[in-house]
Amino acid sequence: MSQKSIYEIEVKSIQGESGTLAPYKGKVMLIVNTATGCGFAPQFKGLQKLHDAYREQGFAVLGFPCSQFANQEKSVDSEIAQACEINFGVSFPLFSKVNVKGREAHPLFQLLTEEARGVLGSKSVKWNFTKFLVDRQGNIVKRFGPADEPAKIEDDIIRLLQMPSPT
């Protein structure tokens, strides 16, 4: 059985609409597991800044709320969306709350953690705001830890945006 491409994995928007990441084909993506109640939540502002600065060049931040770490996320998607918009000015795409580790991990995060290992080769996501950088071809290029500020990722984003788009 062949592994699904990142663009074929089913995801659900925070508004509850089912789809895939196919609309992001040919774009550079930064996929982040988020939590509005986390100490790293101020990173939402930095993530939004990156999204705003580079979206016209084919870049998107995609937020996937998760409540697996100290239950730091709201219980329902509508509350999450509201908190992200009001508290952090988030307008980048958000998706329905998912699990990012363990047997119940969402297939997207199973793929991301298989392709981009963490410290000492670990697969498991260790905390909120783990970030995965994906190139225009859908390859998972690099993983960034929760403490890595969004600004630290900017050079990697620029480098990928300067690479030729797939035909």
From TrEMBL:
Domain of life of the source:
Bacteria
List the InterPro entries hit by this protein, alphabetically: Glutathione_peroxidase, GPX_AS, Thioredoxin-like_sf
Q: Which UniProt keywords apply?
A: Oxidoreductase, Peroxidase
In Pfam terms, one family for this protein is GSHPx
Stored PROSITE patterns: GLUTATHIONE_PEROXID_1 (PS00460), GLUTATHIONE_PEROXID_3 (PS51355)
Supply the CDD domains for this chain.
GSH_Peroxidase
The record's family statement is: Belongs to the glutathione peroxidase family.
Q: What is this protein called?
A: Glutathione peroxidase
Look up and give the organism this protein is from.
Paenibacillus chungangensis
